[in-house]
Write a structure and sequence with these properties.
Elements: H1 11-22, H2 25-37, H3 41-69, E1 80-81, E2 84-85, H4 91-124, H5 136-148, H6 151-169, H7 173-200, H8 205-213, H9 222-235, H10 242-247, H11 256-276, H12 279-284, H13 295-306, H14 310-342, H15 348-368, H16 384-412, H17 414-421, H18 428-459
Helix pairs in contact: 1-7, 1-11, 1-14, 2-9, 2-11, 3-8, 3-9, 3-11, 3-16, 3-17, 3-18, 4-6, 4-14, 4-15, 4-16, 5-13, 6-14, 6-15, 7-11, 7-14, 13-14, 14-15, 15-16, 16-18, 17-18
Length: about 450
């Protein structure tokens, strides 16, 4: 253990940091549109069950790996077990997580640029939400003009978002993220409650709430299961080195069982809460809920234009998205920065510049050009933006999570249980059940998801 390594000041701040890492566009952008595409309540029900059966146990897996060595996400797969050195090839799992982290940040920061562009356009009146009812044609036209075909404008806003991340990260791995989480997470929660309260007061809120919460079991199929499990990995930041990195700063006497359960519950609650920000208003104003990834950007501005003080509500909503994105991007960046910082002689400032600059040049710029200048480039039949998403989410996240479960169950074995029991002795029987489950059952489930997802995205 490195004596100079900083630690979270309390369990509460660690939970806030992990909640921030796991409550980003996954909960506020991705979850709602997947609910809409998969028929509403059935998806929500399966998602909650999957969070309990897969999400929380896998959080505990990555927490155990991260705190055991208290090093970066690559070296976390090293050390000794029962006096014998662990094969150096296991470190490939850590590098796989970093590739996944790069893949998600390549397009994630660009979505942050979109959100900033919407806030800017609403404030300047370019997107006239408070001046009459918007039509679907108007919002689609705005999206095409300002998002798909304005690479310079989106590039500037993406760069601004990257700079905001840099300013916070320069304060240190724990200090910067902890300070941001302390203020941003409560603000995020308050904004969400305000949006939910506003939506539930609308005349058609009941119909939207029924669609959102009442399961239609005929909608449950293979695609829904794949979408749900993919969302669980995405929403909990599993498989891309983030949780392993954050847990490496946790003190040895903290209860990993409690923090994993609290994090899983909090993430599920906020994701479900996000649906209440959207579906009641969609049904009130007759907007189709199944419009896919563009739901937030094309459909919700129409909803806001129907509301009193709609421009204010729109700015508040997109500000909420911005905060959620920031609390997630910081820890993902940190996962890569920590590896570079601990495996080189470079200063932290230089490591941050290399990571943020490298991702901006190699990931963000190609992603924001994917629908215009580089539109002719196709990878697995997808543009660059979608390819980054598909490859990271359907290959690297899932494979890394699968190998993490195998590493804990078949390599660390009793050492993993001992790590979990530090500060969690009263959960000894629960830990025994968890270990059996992680060793024999979760790898099988994750492997099935990987094969199905790979077939659907890259072969079918």
């Amino acid at each position: 253990m490195q004596q100079h390594r900083p630690f979270w000041s309390s369990r509460f701040t660690y939970v806030l940091a992990v909640a921030g890492a796991t409550v980003g566009f996954g909960a506020t952008w991705r979850f709602p549109y997947l609910v809409g595409q998969n028929g509403g309540g059935a998806y929500v029900l399966v998602f909650i069950v999957a969070m309990i059966l897969i999400g929380i146990p896998m959080l505990l897996v990555e927490n155990a790996i991260g705190r055991r060595m208290q090093v970066n996400a690559v070296d976390a797969f090293g050390g000794k077990v029962n006096g014998r050195e662990i094969s150096k090839y296991w470190r490939i799992v850590g590098y796989g997580g970093l590739v996944g982290a790069f893949g998600i940040m390549a397009y994630y920061m660009v979505i942050g640029g979109w959100v900033l562009d919407y806030i800017y356009s609403i404030l300047l009146g370019d997107l006239k939400i408070g001046k009459g009812i918007l039509s679907a044609e108007q919002t689609s036209s705005f999206y095409e003009k300002n998002i798909n075909n304005s690479p310079l404008e989106i590039g500037i806003f993406t760069f601004i978002f990257v700079v905001i991340n840099y300013i916070i990260l320069i304060n240190g791995a724990v200090k910067g993220i902890e300070r941001a989480a302390k203020y941003l997470m409560p603000l995020l929660f308050l904004l969400m409650l305000g949006m939910v309260g506003r939506n539930l007061s609308l005349d058609g809120a009941l119909e939207g709430t029924i669609y959102y919460l009442k399961p239609d079991f005929s909608k449950i199929n293979t695609k829904l299961f794949i979408d749900v499990l993919g969302q669980v990995f995405f929403a909990l930041s599993l498989g891309f080195a983030t949780i392993i990195t954050l847990s490496s700063f946790v003190k040895k006497d903290e209860s990993l069982v409690q923090t994993s359960i609290i994090t899983g519950i909090l993430n599920t609650a906020i994701a479900v809460l996000a649906g209440f920000m959207i579906f009641p208003s969609l049904f009130t104003f007759g907007i189709e809920p199944n419009s896919g990834p563009s739901l937030v950007f094309k459909s919700l501005p129409i909803v806001f234009s129907h509301m009193f003080a709609g421009d204010f509500v729109a700015v508040a909503f997109f500000s909420l998205l911005m905060i959620a994105a920031l609390t997630t991007s910081l820890p993902i960046y940190e996962a890569i920065i920590t590896v570079l910082e601990e495996k080189s002689t470079l200063s932290r400032k230089n490591c941050i510049l290399i990571v943020l600059g490298g991702i901006f040049i190699l990931g963000n710029i190609p992603s924001l050009l994917a629908t215009n200048i580089l539109a002719d480039i196709s990878i697995f039949g997808k543009n660059i933006f979608d390819a980054y998403d598909a490859i990271s989410a359907n290959i690297f996240f899932v494979l890394t999570s699968l190998l993490c479960a195998i590493f804990v169950g078949w390599v660390l074995k009793d050492e993993a249980k001992a790590e979990i029991l530090r500060g969690s002795q009263k959960y000894a029987k629960l830990v025994d059940i968890w270990f059996f489950y992680v060793k024999y059952i979760i790898p099988f489930i994750v492997l099935i998801v990987f094969i199905s997802s790979f077939y659907d995205n890259f072969i079918k």
